[in-house]
Amino acid sequence: MRTILLTTFLALICFTAFSQKNMDDVVYLKNGSKVKGTIIQLYPDSIVQIKQLDGSMWFFLMKDISLIAKEDNIKPRHLITDGKGFQLGVEAGFLIGTGGVEKNSPFGIHAIGSYRIIPNFAAGLGAGLEFLNHTLLPIYIDMRYYMNKKFYSPYLFVQGGVILPLDKEYNIEWNTTYKAKPGYMINPGIGILFPMNEKTALSISFSYRYNEFSYERITPKLPDYTRIEQMNRFNLKFGFLIR
Questions:
Q1: In 3D, which of 195, 180, 191 has the Cα closest to residue 142?
Q2: Cβ–Cβ under 8 Å, residues 123 and 136
Q3: Does pLDDT of 141 surpass 50?
Q4: Model confidence at 170, in pLDDT bands (50, 70, 90)?
Q5: Whole-angstrom distance, CA of residue 89 vs CA of residue 143
Q6: How far apart are CA 39 and CA 74, in angstroms?
Q7: Pairwise CA distance, residues 148 & 153, whole Å
């Protein structure tokens, strides 16, 4: 009688332990294989019934089992930073500050296609549409270094390239007209990824943005006159990444 009570008590303890949240039951067999899922029934002196994640049901004799254990069932959400391959990002944000552009908090949206050369480093090309004092098309090289493989993955990045004006003429000063020439930009910064699953992640970044433009004066005509415009601002962007 004492043996039956002790066996029943141990079975209840095991079954309660196996019911913990965020844990999977794992049955290790003496032949070297293992089955992971949820234990439905456990009889210490006879059999174990376990249900796998795909719904299949398995029965094992206790004499064929070497160990019954628990393992963390939380799927690793850092896989967005693992392995090589292509990735596509879309980012949108605002330029913060007053340096060099009259418009407050100008908006921009960008698309970046890159290749993960090694798990922690990616390089690619980006292009966007920005609305400063006038409409611009930046085209640039984008390089990123991911600092770790944890759920919250900080990264460093630098962007550099040309900026093409989309408007033909600009009235920058009163009663004068200018024609914009292609300029250049550099944008180093830091960001952080918030993976949603193994293939997608949200991101937020903060960077320092420097632009330089030049303008040729059209009317009234002034020979050899070029206007230089510089911009120094911080850039706050929110994005979405997919691999």
A1: 191
A2: no
A3: yes
A4: low
A5: 13
A6: 17
A7: 6
Kindly state the tokens that stand for 64.
């064929």
Cβ neighbours of 87 (radius 10 Å): 18
Provide the residue type at 33 as one letter: S
> Which CATH number describes the domain made up of 79-242?
2.40.160.20
Give the Cβ contact number of residue 64 at 10 Å: 12
Q: Can 2-72 and 79-242 be said to share one CATH topology?
A: no
Q: How far is CA 130 from CA 30, 69, 137, 189, 199, in A?
A: 64, 56, 6, 18, 28
Confidence of residue 15 (pLDDT cuts 50, 70, 90): very low
Domain range annotation of the chain: 2-72, 79-242
As a whole number of Å, the end-to-end CA separation of the chain is 61
Fold classification of 2-72 is SH3 type barrels. (2.30.30)
Q: Which residues of 177-200 are buried (b: 16+ CB within 10 A; e: fewer)?
A: bbebeebebebebebebebeeeee
Q: Is 2 helix (H, G, I), strand (E, B) or coil?
A: helix
Tokens of 68: 């019954």
